[in-house]
Amino acid sequence: MNEPMPGAEPGPEDEPLPLGIARTPTGNAEVEAQLERLADADHLPADGHIEVYEDVHRGLRSALTSLDSAQPLPGPQPPAEHRPYEDD
Residue 56 contacts by C-beta under 8 Å, 6 or more apart in sequence? Predict the structure, then answer.
């Protein structure tokens, strides 16, 4: 990428270009908001990207942790001989 001359206005060639990576929606609004936040890095110099990435990472961990705690995993099933019979 060309460095702008001092005092020069940035032109269209200096704007970030989309990577063209298709993303499948997750169906979770909190996760979607975090993924959209990644676009904020497009308008920052490279040394500012890490702050955005770390913020998104924290948000995604929080969202995914809350999903895990909201849906407890089923416990182990008792052996077949101890299960009550079902009436048909």
Answer: 34, 35, 37, 38
pLDDT in tens, 32-54: 999 999 888 888 888 999 999 99
| Domain range summary for the chain, segments of one domain joined by + | 27-70
Q: What is the model's pLDDT at position 21? A: 78
Whether the Cβ atoms of residue 25 and residue 32 lie closer than 8 Å to each other: yes
Region class of 60: left (phi > 0), else alpha (psi between -120 and 50), else beta: alpha
For the beta carbon of residue 62, count every other beta carbon within 10 angstroms. Answer: 12
Query: pLDDT of 4-17, one tens digit each?
Result: 556 656 566 667 66
Residue 56 to residue 65: CA distance in whole angstroms? 14
Cα 24 to Cα 41: distance, rounded to the nearest angstrom: 20
